[in-house]
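Order emerges. For instance:

***
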Amino acid sequence: MRLRRVKIFGFKTFAEKAEFEISGDFVAVVGPNGSGKSNIVDAILWGLGEGNSRHLRAQSGTDVIFNGSSRRKAVGYAEVSLLFDNEDGALPIPTSEVTVTRRLTRAGESEYSINRQTCRLRDVLELLADSGLGRAGYAIVGQKEIDQALAASAEDRRSWVDEAAGVQRYRARKVESLRRLVSAKDHLSRVADILKEIESQRDPLAAEAEVAIRYKSALTSLREIESGLLVSEVISTNAELNKLESSLQSSAATIRRENEIANKADDEISRIGNKISVIESDLDSMRATLQSTLTQIERLESTVQLGHQRLKSFEDLEANFDDEAERAQKRLEEMRAEIEVLEKEWQAEEAEFTRISEECVGVGESASKLKIELVKAESELDSGRKAHNLSLQAEAEKKHRLTRQKEIKRELDSARKNIADVESASKEASEQFETAHAKLKGTEEQLRARIDQVESVKKSGQDRSVALRSDLAQQASLEGRKRGIEATIESHEGLAQGPRAVLDAVESGKISGDFVPVGEAISVSKDLALAIEVALGASSNDLICDSEEDAKRAIGYLKENRAGRATFQPIPLMRPHQVPSEAKALLKEAGVISFANEVVDCEPRFQPVIDALLGRILIVETLEFALKLAKTSGWSRLVTLEGELVHSGGAVTGGNGARIAYGVVQRKADLEAIEEELAEISARVSKVEKESANESSQIEEIETQIASLKELQEVQKIESAEANQWASQVHHELLATRKEIEKLEREIESMQTQDAAIIEPVDLEKLERARD
């Protein structure tokens, strides 16, 4: 190993990067005092990890960084790289060149690297140990250290000798190991004290730990169940929310549609009501007009009759006018003659009247009486004429009432005929409404039944989901245990150092052969695992191999590498297994289960080894049975199911230690039991998933039926509403018809009452004669 190159930057006076090639057997640096010759040696010493500032002729660690001058400013860090030639492999690194670099910043951050890989100072010192460049090295001697070397103590000389002999690394490791061993002993003593302290608390803590484990398991299960329930509630709530939203949308659409229909119906009702009001007002006005018209007609009829009578009298008078005219002419002539005679007589009479007037002064009173009687006669004549007119009017009204009664009777007959049809239509409409309502009710019952069925299916699905979550949680726990046990078996945990070293060597290819631990070669049921584990004992770490040469080669590897000891079971060296006759007889004894080799399973090629190890070990149920068989022969050991052991020499092993043995056999048994339980859980999970799938299809089918029933329900609601509306209309029409009939009947009764009040006729001619 030689130092080939030195690179310096920022160290003391090296403000710029400087690189020195060191070649040849002897290198000298020549220069005046103060030129920096010693700074090169200090840089090499600093780069090798020197931490004492005084050895570097500095006050502190950061004083080695260039502080600047009048011409140059200071630098921020110092760095030294040393390149070593490692062709001879003196340094324990598989490279031909090794570069050691040290860097220090003004903040005090120090960094080391080997071949540009960051490392610790300890790594640098271990790398350079035994090379003469270590802390106790002798390769670098300062200006004032020659006299110190001559006057060095024995301890310092010994360190130099160790460095030169190449044992300094191992001595340092020994010192470090002794220091760590002392520290470990101190720790062990403290651990022993802690164990003593904890031992008194172990039983209560174990009980508390068991309670805590149960609590943690229950809490985990509770959280899983609550999480599952929350997930299920969220899913069901989202589904219900979606369903309600869709139902709300459909209801909103239905409401809008119904509102539109209702608005249209209200508009139609308002329009029809307005028409009905107009028609009723028109009808009332028409009825009033009709009544007044009928009254006027009756009056006109009576006036016409009166006119006819007068016309008849006028015609009679006209017929007599001609005769009367002739007679009147004759009479006129006669009258003229008579007038002449009368004038003469008048003059005579006037004279006579004057005479009589004078004679009859009291005749005026008689004239006044006659005048009063005349006024009375004229008044009676006027009253008679009015009564006669009233009689004529009453007669006309009577005829009108008779005509109206006939019309009312026809209307009554028609209404009574129609009322039967209306009653039949009302009954039919009611039956239609009841039928539609019954259909609607049946559909609603079917809908409720389907909804209840969905809820029942969902509830059973939720129950299955809870069971499924429990199974999945148990499955995850078992799978975790399974992976842990498989990892433990694959890593050969529990094996002694020697067998594990052999298996690791086989895996890395350092030795060849097929080696299988006895414990991993067999499988047994869980209830017998502890007994087989105890029966095998340390033999569970034995390695089964195909030949004695493999065993020999593995033992050689263990010796060469000081990797421990191991027991090998070469299959060809195994002797044939024979069961003694007295041992066969023991199988019939009470409490005896079987020989250990008969209750385990293994590959046929491993059977000779298993027979040799377990063929003479008898498994019994309890220690009492084992002690009863202790004086018999034909076996080497008796093992109980709880792990007690009776040796053929009479020794009995049993009890319960701080740690119960848990070897590969029990791990494999637990693994098989876990696999069986996982298979059962997987079957249950598959069954539940299949049922869930069937349940989902069933729910979809029922929801499809629900949707169709809802559509049918909407249609039937419309039909029921229409039937109800039609029945209501028919019922109203029936009520209106009945009211009309009652009205017509009351009108007939009123007319009949009016017919009873008859006005007596008047003798108008008699009154006229009396007046005349």
Remarks:
- The mean pLDDT is 77.
- The CA atoms of residues 471 and 477 lie 10 Å apart.
- The longest strand covers residues 77-85.
